[in-house]
Specification:
Structural class: mainly alpha
Oligomer: single chain
Distance between the termini: 39 Å
Number of strands: 0
Order of helices and strands: HHHHHHHHHH
Shape: globular
Number of helices: 10
Radius of gyration: 24 Å
CATH architecture of the largest domain: Orthogonal Bundle
CATH topology of the largest domain: MetI-like fold
CATH class of the largest domain: Mainly Alpha
Number of domains: 2
């Protein structure tokens, strides 16, 4: 006999959807209203290029076929750079964090240099990056890796150290090898922290791609090059459209890793949290 959803279950789902969607929608509408207030009430007509009304941004930046094509091509260029840089940062970060988790000496040797790399201002090393790697896509990838590497290392290392000591003692009692301990205990325990680091680094990789685009203009034009061009020409609508696209790219990449996290460990992690 086929059973349907009860009214209580349907109401709870509706309430859950409403609670998840209504607050951001309400805040978005408030921000749009504030945007219009600034455009029409605060800024004079001669200075309205500083913040064009949102309908003009949509009309010029997205509905105009030439501008839309240029924006989408630039978005694709920045997306490729961000994904390549993120993939390299993940590979390096996982490898270093794993090595550091296996020996305190290795951790003490590597970690100060990772902190130093994180503290280096990108603007200070732009001339060196262009001198060593040129002004093309490779330099933009290097910037992405530099910006997004540190959170992966820190979160992965923290996760690998988060397994309970009692579990380690049990593996020691059974004479488990180092590889078995990593595979069966440390990596599963590290997954929540690993995905937290991935989500942070995913957003940073987008920032790195745009920053790299801004300074290294050889090759396909990215969002950063469009931002620079539109700002120099005082093209307010196109500039805001590029900003919106870059923000959406960051949100999509961040949300993708959040979705992967829920698919991979969401239920397991929630159950562990409830039990704790």
């Amino acid at each position: 006999m086929k059973t349907g959803s009860t009214p209580t279950a349907e109401m709870s789902r509706s309430e859950h959807v409403a609670r998840a969607t209504l607050p951001p929608i309400a805040l978005g509408l408030a921000l749009v209203g504030l945007w219009y207030c600034i455009s029409y009430l605060v800024l004079e007509e001669s200075r309205r290029f500083l913040l064009r009304p949102i309908h003009q941004v949509i009309e010029v930046g997205f509905l105009d076929s030439d501008n839309r094509t240029e924006e989408l091509l630039a978005l694709w260029s920045s997306t490729k750079i961000a994904l390549i840089g993120l993939a390299i940062a993940i590979s390096i970060g996982f490898t270093l964090a794993t090595l550091m988790s296996q020996a305190k000496t290795v951790e003490k040797a590597i970690f100060p240099y990772m902190v130093t790399l994180q503290a280096i201002p990108i603007l200070a090393v732009v001339p060196l990056i262009s001198f060593w790697f040129g002004t093309g896509a490779l330099s933009r990838v290097v910037v992405c890796v530099m910006i997004s590497l540190f959170p992966i290392i820190v979160n992965t290392l923290f996760g690998l150290h988060s397994a309970e000591q009692g579990a380690h003692d049990l593996f020691t009692l059974h004479h488990a090898s180092r590889v078995t301990r990593l595979k069966k205990l440390m990596f599963p325990a590290a997954l929540p922290a690993v995905f937290a680091g991935l989500r942070i680094s995913a957003g940073l990789s987008v920032i790195g791609a745009i920053v790299g685009d801004f300074f290294f203009g050889k090759g396909d034009a990215g969002i950063g090059q469009l931002l620079r061009r539109h700002a120099s020409r005082l093209q307010g609508e196109e500039l805001l459209a590029s900003v919106i696209l870059s923000s959406l790219l960051g949100v999509v990449v961040f949300g993708f890793f959040g979705w992967v996290q829920k698919r991979a460990i969401g239920r397991w992690h929630d159950a562990i949290s409830v039990e704790a």
